């Protein structure tokens, strides 16, 4: 049984399969939610299972990806010269913007200009294909270009609240964590935080700096964080929404 479902204003295909099984399960792939439901449950119970599975799958799948809008269909709205298209701009919360272009080429590559232009060279015509191919590399470029920005934030917060020795600070392309602090006092911050409100970026920086004192998430650790950011629990909830 196929249907349609709207999540955050976007339409997805909902494929429901009834099986002679005890537990319900589901998966998401390329715009389609496939839910395997028990045929032995009531309609009311089935609705509850559907809502629960969609909520769980959506939370795990729709992670923040600020580049998504660049690769939607018909996004090549402006042609510049021969086989060169303007895809759009990537703008960070610190008001720095990067212009992204696509140029047809038999060679697969990506170049970065000092004026913050990013040019994708590819023979791929399918938007999804080159999105998957180059998203990570685009993030890596922005990370390198913005690393000084995050270094300054970490340095300022460290001098103000901690005064601890830091080895390295690095912006990284991550998919499962907002930040980390290693045993060698290396602090890593997710590039995706540069697309969120500054108070959330600041909170993650303080969170990781607090690990220079307490390596685990003990009560002492959270006391340190709370002393600096009293509403840290609210910041945690906000991050989970992203």
Could you characterize what this model shows?
The chain has 242 residues and is α/β, with parallel strands linked by helices. It has helices spanning 43-61, 127-162, 198-210, 219-228, 232-241; strands at 2-7, 10-19, 25-29, 32-38, 78-79, 84-91, 97-104, 109-112, 117-122, 168-172, 179-181, 186-190. The strands form 3 sheets. Strands 5-6-7-9-8 form a 5-stranded mixed beta sheet, covered by helices on one side. α2 packs across α3 (198-210). It is flat and about 60 Å long. Mean pLDDT is 84; it is low at 73-78.
Short description:
The chain has about 240 residues and is of the alpha/beta class. The chain has 5 helices and 12 strands.
Q: What distance lies between the first and last C-alpha atoms, to the nearest angstrom?
A: 31 Å
Strand percentage lies at: 25-35%
> Main beta sheet: strand number and arrangement?
5 strands, mixed
Secondary-structure element string: EEEEHEEEEEHEEEHHH
Strands side by side in the biggest sheet: 5-6-7-9-8
Shape category: flat
Please give the share of residues in helix.
25-40%
Structural class label: alpha/beta
Rg: 22 Å
Number of strands: 12
Give average pLDDT, whole number. 84
- Number of helical segments? 5
The residue ranges in which pLDDT falls below 50 over 5 or more consecutive positions are: 73-78
